[in-house]
């Protein structure tokens, strides 16, 4: 029996954490063959060579596509996308996947999708229909929807939006959110275990992840400096930073983090990659999640943690009542942290409505990938809403 070849691409630590359970589901199915391509930050010493973690978890990486240049300017990012396209063309020619699975909205994934489009490889896209109006990711995500043939969305609102973009309803599946599924299924580290790993007292702890915001007026440097200045108002709190991705100006953000942790070694620690278990365990035990990462919008509410969401990077996403939006100004960040720490806000946390749920998302995705008829699926008539 010929097994259906499912090829998954991952370029970042966060993507891999979300795709992990799907990969395990495919790997365990006798009727499916898992193919895995690692690219982007996974292969960079600067970002921790996280492809090694993938291999340690028991996966075989079929192709490694080097693409990152030693710069994060817009020109360098654009050139990296071109290098990636060349690499994906060669990899797809060798692997000949039946379905390509892509997640999210990053530029590495865009290169994979456009290559698959030209090579007539069916694409299944996870997390379509979501909005991130403060970053170029917004345009990339919707472009990926139009280049894809199968869609796995996180809720009904995003399902509706994918169909609104002209996708056939019978190819759009609301499976729930992979990040929330991870929370529902994982075993968390204890406070003592986490204390030993982080090297910090975690009783009063801020978990901070701040990425470049490519479409906002203030520079990434200015925004990060404002955030760091806000921490001076909370000297009793320890800080764990997870570093920025390889996006435009991401390296400058990481330099500022390094400078801050060097000046505050007893108070602050930074990590390129904590890994899913340590990261979510840190989130579970922290006081507040701060920054502009999607994890503060999706995973933090499921763990009943307040989020300070800074700037417009996540503008447009559905948000729970545990999320406080604020401008990237020191005064506003300080006021938002004080609000999140207040007894009144803490009491509200247990009553919030979650916008994202998911307990069997990976199983549902695997089942659809296995059962969907891909004959003539490349043909995509536009679906008009009545």
Helix/strand layout:
Elements (H helix, E strand, L loop, with lengths): L3 E7 L2 H15 L4 E8 L11 H6 L6 E3 L8 H22 L3 E5 L3 H12 L4 E4 L10 H11 L2 E4 L2 H9 L7 E3 L3 H8 L5 H8 L6 E5 L10 H11 L7 E5 L7 H14 L4 E4 L3 H11 L2 E4 L7 H4 L4 E4 L12 E4 L3 H12 L1 H6 L12 H11 L15
Parallel strand pairs: 1-2, 1-4, 2-3, 4-5, 5-6, 6-7, 8-9, 8-11, 9-10, 11-12, 12-13
Helix pairs in contact: 1-15, 3-4, 4-5, 9-10, 9-13
List keywords for this structure.
single chain, 386 residues, alpha/beta, 7-stranded parallel beta sheet, 6-stranded parallel beta sheet, 13 strands, globular
Q: How would you characterize this protein structure?
A:
There is one protein chain. The chain is built from 15 helices and 13 strands. By secondary structure, it is of the alpha/beta class. The strands form two sheets. Strands 3-2-1-4-5-6-7 form a seven-stranded parallel β-sheet, with helices on both faces. A six-stranded parallel β-sheet has the order 10-9-8-11-12-13, sandwiched between helices. Helix 2 links the parallel strand 2 and strand 3 (63-65). The longest helix has 22 residues, at 74-95. The protein is globular, with a radius of gyration of 20 Å. The model has no long low-confidence stretch (mean pLDDT 92).
Give the low-confidence spans. Answer: none
**Spatial strand sequence of the major β-sheet:** 3-2-1-4-5-6-7
Q: Give the strand content.
A: 15-25%
Shape: globular
Q: Report, as a whole number of angstroms, the end-to-end distance.
A: 43 Å
What integer value in Å does the Rg equal?
Answer: 20 Å
Number of helices: 15
- Output mean pLDDT: 92
Class inferred from helices and paired strands: alpha/beta
Largest sheet: 7 strands, parallel
Helix proportion: 40-55%
By DSSP, the count of extended strands is 13
SSE string, helices as H and strands as E: EHEHEHEHEHEHEHHEHEHEHEHEEHHH
């Amino acid at each position: 029996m010929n097994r259906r070849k499912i090829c998954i691409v991952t370029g970042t630590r966060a993507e891999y954490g979300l795709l992990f359970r799907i990969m395990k589901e495919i790997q365990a199915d006798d009727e499916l063959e898992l193919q895995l391509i690692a690219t982007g930050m996974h292969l960079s010493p600067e970002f921790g060579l996280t492809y090694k973690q993938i291999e340690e978890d028991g996966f075989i990486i079929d192709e490694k596509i080097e693409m990152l240049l030693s710069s994060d300017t817009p020109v360098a990012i654009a050139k990296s996308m071109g290098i990636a396209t060349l690499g994906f063309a060669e990899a797809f020619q060798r692997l000949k996947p039946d379905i390509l699975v892509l997640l999210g909205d990053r530029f590495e994934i865009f290169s994979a999708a456009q290559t698959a489009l030209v090579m007539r490889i069916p694409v299944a896209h996870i997390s379509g229909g979501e909005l991130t109006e403060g970053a170029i990711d917004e345009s990339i995500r919707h472009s990926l929807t139009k280049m894809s043939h199968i869609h796995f969305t996180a809720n009904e609102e995003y399902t509706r939006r994918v169909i609104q973009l002209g996708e056939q309803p019978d190819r759009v599946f609301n499976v729930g959110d992979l990040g929330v599924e991870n929370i529902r299924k994982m075993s968390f580290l204890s406070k003592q275990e986490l204390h030993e790993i982080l090297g910090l007292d975690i009783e009063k702890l801020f978990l901070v992840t701040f990425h470049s915001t490519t479409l906002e007026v203030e520079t990434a440097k200015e925004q990060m400096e404002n955030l760091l200045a806000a921490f001076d108002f909370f000297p009793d709190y320890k800080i764990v930073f997870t570093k920025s991705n390889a996006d435009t100006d991401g390296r400058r953000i990481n330099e500022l983090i390094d400078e801050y942790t060097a000046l505050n070694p007893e108070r602050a620690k930074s990590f390129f990659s904590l890994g899913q278990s340590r990261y979510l365990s840190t989130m579970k035990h922290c006081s507040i999640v701060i920054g502009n990462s999607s994890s503060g919008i999706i995973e933090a509410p499921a763990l009943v943690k307040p989020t300070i969401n800074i700037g417009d990077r996540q503008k447009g996403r559905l948000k729970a009542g545990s999320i406080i939006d604020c401008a990237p100004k020191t005064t506003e960040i300080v006021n938002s942290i004080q609000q999140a720490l207040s007894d009144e806000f803490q009491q509200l946390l247990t009553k919030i409505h979650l916008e994202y749920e998911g307990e069997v998302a990976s199983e549902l995705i695997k089942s659809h990938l296995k059962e969907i008829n891909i004959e003539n699926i490349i043909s995509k008539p536009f679906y008009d809403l009545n």
